[in-house]
């Protein structure tokens, strides 16, 4: 392992930051929109006497419960929108960041929703704890929409419980994904009672318009981008399996062909949610990244056996029909702001980076790929070909991780950050793409930041759920 040549090589095509600036504006605008909605509903709560009601125990409980319900309603809609695959939002934020925000917003909205139920019930029971269960039962039976809200709450409880880390370790990805879809049902059932009876929702035409518009826009976003568009793309492109190639004992590449693939607008580094229709369990989608740059005629994914869905990929037959959702992901050339780039991947995480190494524009010496592997390198022959024909500099990092806090395998006796600087001295002047398991990718990101790479130029996509 040697220090990489840091000499700059001129390139005829300058990198433009226009897309990065546009994405930053989208992030600012979407953050401001959510913040403005939260401030608006809080101002409505205050104008309705929410602050003055804090004087006595019973009214304070009810008032705080009403406020938590308003905020929870906004966050529930935001939670759904974060995963609605809206192209403008997806492209600006990136899927990894959206998943992180989705998880944080989800737990926050769920906590506030439970606080709303408990506090309002307690307040209606005149602050008497012993009367609260009977009051809750009365509210469920007598208030319009409350039975639906109770069912929606139970659905959300199931989603939150199965999203806890301890629960996810005991579930297959396919089972977890199926249960997670009940979040849509939970939100759909939990909110209507507020739209029908809540004073803060119905006391003026402006408020009613705001809430119905927010709820309707969220529903339309899900139906368009999670249902209609995937169905349209599946029917339009008619993807089928062309071949299945064994790359390693537990890794296969699936080659696919279809109709008008040049119109799919897919970029190297992106992934799809795949449903292979001619196999058992086809209703459950699996996310796989492209492992080759799209050429308009075919697509390829490389899959490691890690569960029921991925293991079944090895048994696919040519001609098997395929349904897709996507393309998704921001680990693409669109985030590039520098001529010089670094690609750092581990295990099957090398697959989208291999596609990037093929699809990016660079001159010899401008691109380096650090390939972390344990038993044998994946797609080593293809990476060697890119090194020979494109000038990609490939640095192999073999062996098991030397300790839990390190992202390196066999390496000299020095800390990770010092070694990364030794191998890529000009890392701070590059865009860095990272892909691999979550904890490993986080460790790589910390090393990059410690070497002065701005956070906006470290583009991470981790494998996990």
Automatic annotation (TrEMBL):
<keyword id="KW-1133">Transmembrane helix</keyword>
<keyword id="KW-0411">Iron-sulfur</keyword>
<keyword id="KW-0408">Iron</keyword>
<feature type="domain" description="FAD-binding FR-type">
    <location>
        <begin position="234"/>
        <end position="334"/>
    </location>
</feature>
<dbReference type="InterPro" id="IPR050415">
    <property type="entry name" value="MRET"/>
</dbReference>
<feature type="transmembrane region" description="Helical">
    <location>
        <begin position="179"/>
        <end position="197"/>
    </location>
</feature>
<keyword id="KW-0274">FAD</keyword>
<feature type="transmembrane region" description="Helical">
    <location>
        <begin position="104"/>
        <end position="125"/>
    </location>
</feature>
<dbReference type="Pfam" id="PF01794">
    <property type="entry name" value="Ferric_reduct"/>
</dbReference>
<protein>
    <submittedName>
        <fullName>Ferric reductase-like transmembrane domain-containing protein</fullName>
    </submittedName>
</protein>
<dbReference type="InterPro" id="IPR017927">
    <property type="entry name" value="FAD-bd_FR_type"/>
</dbReference>
<keyword id="KW-0001">2Fe-2S</keyword>
<keyword id="KW-0472">Membrane</keyword>
<feature type="transmembrane region" description="Helical">
    <location>
        <begin position="145"/>
        <end position="167"/>
    </location>
</feature>
<keyword id="KW-0479">Metal-binding</keyword>
<dbReference type="InterPro" id="IPR017938">
    <property type="entry name" value="Riboflavin_synthase-like_b-brl"/>
</dbReference>
<dbReference type="InterPro" id="IPR039261">
    <property type="entry name" value="FNR_nucleotide-bd"/>
</dbReference>
<feature type="transmembrane region" description="Helical">
    <location>
        <begin position="26"/>
        <end position="46"/>
    </location>
</feature>
<keyword id="KW-0812">Transmembrane</keyword>
<dbReference type="InterPro" id="IPR013130">
    <property type="entry name" value="Fe3_Rdtase_TM_dom"/>
</dbReference>
<feature type="transmembrane region" description="Helical">
    <location>
        <begin position="209"/>
        <end position="229"/>
    </location>
</feature>
<keyword id="KW-0560">Oxidoreductase</keyword>
<feature type="transmembrane region" description="Helical">
    <location>
        <begin position="66"/>
        <end position="84"/>
    </location>
</feature>
<keyword id="KW-0285">Flavoprotein</keyword>
